[in-house]
Amino acid sequence: MKFEHFGINVPDAAAMAAWYVEHLHMQIVRAVQGVPHTHFLADATGRVVMEIYTNPSAPIPDYANQDPLCLHVAFAVEDAAAERDALIASGATLVSNQTLDDGSLLVMLRDPWGIALQLCQRAAPMLQL
Questions:
Q1: In a domain, 129, yes or no
Q2: Cα dist. 13→10, 18, 53, 71, 113 in Å?
């Protein structure tokens, strides 16, 4: 088996997809116009795909009030502070900054829809890309 994608029900999939493309450097690899406004977004490597949709037949979780440890979308970055500042300027909100014992920096933010985003500036990369 190979991982294909993970999906989440969000309040405004079309607007969120546009924001993720502009500010998180993701690309739309497939989209459905009209309800449920499904968008498949790939990261810069094209290996990881997330599906976002606004499907009225299922509840949309209260992401803004969930602990980020329940759900977060993590991105490997080279300069977490610079990415944090750019995302905050684009509508994200800061939750926390954490420096690990190995020198890794983890920044937790929320996107404009309340979904937790984590920026991971690892001292030693988790994956070799």
A1: no
A2: 6, 9, 5, 17, 10
